[in-house]
Specification:
- The chain is α/β, with parallel strands linked by helices.
- The N and C termini lie far apart (55 Å).
Length: 466
């Protein structure tokens, strides 16, 4: 008898828009065991499993979902963690709709299996257990690997290599590990205790961590090369872009990096418990259309803004943010000023921004990004009242490591150049991946880069062949 197909995903409960926009608690509440089993049973258990191909870290998706369907959550966790040491994170912030779920066979006619929700479920289920099973670590190879940066790519490299018997030390510039997971993504989308939980798992496997250690200042890559057999650079993209338009230096105009770091890593949203000042604007404009822009806008709302606008130069169709993040922002009352480009700012007598002058745009031909190019409409200028502006139009890698290690080749925008098949840089014994190579990308792509580099590093440590 043919399996009866349930066309739609099992819904996941979440806070209502009116409730959640007043707090920083996580929005989706997760599946119950019954809901997870129901959703897992929608999986067709395809033999060719295109979902695995769609996953940058090659998780055995039918395997772990099949175990959930049987109620064997412990085995589902084991299968998941064989490929992914950060399931609670990936289940929350990875764009499954553009990867594994996009190629799910069910998606041809119905809604795909909720792979991300199921990944989150088993990770959260494991956290409720008294004992977390750890994989057996092989005897030491005697080889040492330095991982620069504790973001998702660096954590993946560390997890893969420690399980192969290599000694791994992570060097993190900030005082807490997690990279963009702790400084960039807000609490309501990625609770920080979950990041701590995933990092703690790696430490239990034997990974060592050194925080407040700035490679390029505390020690250079060359100095680390004297102590370690291989180095992976996963320092992300922390250098914010600005538009360089008149008035951009007025008070009240911030980069998304600073704005979100103050709120997330430095806990300004919990003021005065944490004594970190942050601007709490009443009329806030956020420039950009990606996930960082959505995070900034939704943070501003929770900090007490009366009105928050997303200002984006293309149409909503071209926005790079996840669809669910756009929808949640709309539900919370954030206004979308699409096909709109800021051209200048105006300030009051004290130098605080009070107006943003914009111009309307129209879409032209497709450009190199694969999207239609935005073109200004002459004479369409208008002004928006603002007291706070957050610029979230992208970022580049910090130039510190290339400046202190000139034999590491970089591209036009400061991105470290690598062999995409291996992650090797131009410097022997040094690999790189994630946003420091790609610019602003996604958590799962950084993890995929980490997996590729880990394989190459292991081969190099075994053979000595570069």
């Amino acid at each position: 008898m043919a399996k009866k197909i349930i066309p739609k995903k099992t819904p996941m409960k979440e806070q209502s828009p009116e409730e959640r926009k007043k707090n920083f608690n996580e929005v989706p509440l997760g599946y119950t065991e019954e809901e997870a089993i129901l959703e897992a049973r929608r999986c067709l258990q395809c033999k060719n499993a295109p979902c695995i191909t769609g996953c940058p870290v090659e998780i055995d998706i039918p395997g772990f979902i099949g175990k959930i369907a049987e109620g064997d959550f412990k085995e589902a966790v084991r299968i998941m963690k064989d490929k992914n040491v950060l399931p609670a994170i990936c289940g929350r912030v990875c764009p499954q709709e553009d990867q594994c779920e996009k190629v799910c066979v069910l998606a041809k006619k119905f809604e795909p299996v909720a792979i991300g929700r199921l990944e989150r479920f088993i990770a959260d289920w494991e956290a409720t257990q008294e004992k977390i099973d750890l994989p057996k670590i092989p005897p030491s190879t005697g080889k040492r690997v330095a991982v620069v940066g504790s973001g998702p790519g660096g954590l993946t490299v560390a997890g893969d290599l420690i399980k192969l018997g290599h000694e791994v030390v992570i060097f993190e510039a900030l005082h807490k590990p997690g990279g963009v997971l702790v400084y960039g993504i807000p609490e309501f989308r990625m609770p920080k205790d979950i990041v701590e939980r995933e990092v703690d798992y790696l430490l239990k496997l034997g990974v060592k961590l050194k925080t407040s250690f700035i490679v390029g200042r505390t020690k250079s890559v060359d100095e680390l090369s004297e102590e370690f057999d291989a180095i992976y650079i996963g320092t992300g993209a922390g250098l914010p872009w600005f538009m360089n338009i008149p008035g951009e230096n007025y008070k009240g105009i911030y980069s998304a990096n600073e704005y979100l770091t103050r709120s997330n890593l430095m806990k300004a949203y919990l003021f005065p418990k944490y004594d970190t000042p942050i601007v709490k604007g009443k009329e806030v404009a956020v420039i950009g259309g990606g996930n960082v822009a959505m995070d900034s806008a939704r943070t501003a709302l929770r900090l007490g803004a009366d009105e928050v606008k997303i200002v984006y130069r293309r149409s909503e169709k071209e926005m790079p943010a996840r669809i669910e993040e756009i929808e949640r922002a709309k539900e919370e009352g954030i206004i979308f000023e699409i096909l709109t480009l800021p051209v200048s700012y105006h300030a009051n007598n004290d130098g605080w921004v009070k107006e943003m002058e914009c111009i309307r745009m129209k879409l032209g031909e497709v450009d190199s990004s694969g999207r239609r190019r935005p073109l200004p409409i002459e004479g369409s200028n208008f002004k928006i009242d603002v007291d706070t502006v957050v610029v979230a139009i992208g970022q580049s890698p910090n130039p510190l490591i290339p400046e202190t290690s000139p034999d590491i080749k970089v591209g036009k925008w400061g991105n470290i150049e690598v062999d995409p098949e291996t992650g090797k840089t131009s410097k022997r014994g040094v690999w790189a991946g994630g946003d420091v190579v790609r610019g602003g990308a996604t958590v799962i792509l950084a993890m995929g880069d980490g997996r590729v580099a880990a394989r190459s590093i292991d081969e190099y440590l075994e053979t000595g062949v570069w």
